[in-house]
Write a structure and sequence with these properties.
With 115 residues, this protein is mainly α. It contains four helices and no strands.
């Protein structure tokens, strides 16, 4: 059973922390920078950066609650796995990633001015 908890924690943690952290510490500041530089047709609504972290934060909290209530003996392991994935996701933020760049441009293209 512990291997299932580890795999679920790794996969779910990666998706959850990516959807929580990247919009808040990467996409939102980048949009604000582009807005200051006058490279946006109009401001990107703040709610677009907040909704995904709220949803995924709720799902992450629910997963922690499920593990704590149903699999008490594995809760410490689940926390360790989530902590590891959190560090991995945080470590990726400063790296320049072309996929993130392309994803940002694709997601917000209706707000970006043509270059």
């Amino acid at each position: 059973m512990w291997i299932i908890i580890v795999i679920v924690g790794l996969i779910f943690g990666l998706f959850a922390f990516s959807q929580i952290i990247y919009p808040l510490v990467s996409a939102w500041p980048r949009a604000k920078k582009l807005e200051r530089e006058g490279k946006l047709k109009q401001s990107i609504p703040i709610t677009t950066f907040i909704i995904a972290p709220i949803v995924w934060g709720t799902l992450l909290a629910a997963s922690i609650w499920i593990v704590n209530s149903s699999f008490v003996e594995y809760s410490k392991l689940y926390y360790i796995v989530l902590g590891f994935i959190f560090v991995v996701v945080i470590a990726q933020i400063p790296k320049q990633n072309r996929d993130l760049e392309a994803d940002f441009k694709d997601s917000w293209k209706k707000y970006l001015k043509e270059e």
